[in-house]
Task: inverse folding
């Protein structure tokens, strides 16, 4: 498994923006597909976005499409999730995850079982 360190959560007003970061420790993040997931209280974990190794493919759930953007900064060994036009229903703990079993994956998925290494999670609270 790979170590992922997250940052960037917090409170934000509806309509606001936040950027979440997922940094790799001790390995090159670029080689692996990365997913972003979220889990609200009482709900199942939901895949919101993913990016393939080297960034050739990105996917978004319908609930965040056109509002969230996933990207890589290989120089910083970090994947970002830029969230805009935030809504109260975006409130959740957000997790990043890596598929460490498939180096160089040309695709990515939004299922939890596609990933085996997880960040610690950060709380995002959208409220006025």
Result:
């Amino acid at each position: 498994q790979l170590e992922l360190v997250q940052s960037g959560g917090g409170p934000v007003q509806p309509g606001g923006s936040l950027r979440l970061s997922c940094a790799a420790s001790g390995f090159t993040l670029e080689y692996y597909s990365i997913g972003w997931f979220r889990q609200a209280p009482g709900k199942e974990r939901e895949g919101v976005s993913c990016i393939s190794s080297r960034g050739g493919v990105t996917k978004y759930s319908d609930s965040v499409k056109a509002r969230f953007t996933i990207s890589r900064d290989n120089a910083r060994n970090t994947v970002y999730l830029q969230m805009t036009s935030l809504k109260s229903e975006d409130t959740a703990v957000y997790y990043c995850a890596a598929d460490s079993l498939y180096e160089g994956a040309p695709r990515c998925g939004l299922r939890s079982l596609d990933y085996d290494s997880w960040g610690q999670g950060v709380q995002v609270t959208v409220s006025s």
Observations:
- Residues 51 and 103 are 13 Å apart (CA to CA).
- The mean pLDDT is 95.
- The longest strand covers residues 18-25.
